[in-house]
Amino acid sequence: MIDAEDLDAILETHVIDPAIVRSDDFERFYEARFEQLLQRIEGAMGKQIAREPADSTVSAGQVTIDFEGAAAPPEDELSPEEVETMEEELAIAG
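The chain above was modelled as a monomer; its predicted structure follows.
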């Protein structure tokens, strides 16, 4: 059996704060880990990463966001026939 101190050390190697896990607050856990991972990436890259925009929309499995953070409509909508053709081509290629 792993004692609490060893478990804490393991969690910390995965950028997980054991105190937050024990508080049973998933939203706080997610936000803290997200930020910690971004900070590690920024440190490795030597520059800041843009944080997730506040507004986005999902349409047909795609998220389209303009540079202002506002949702933008897709430039070209595919017809059902075009979608079917693409699916068939992917099935053949796969």
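The chain has four helices and two strands.
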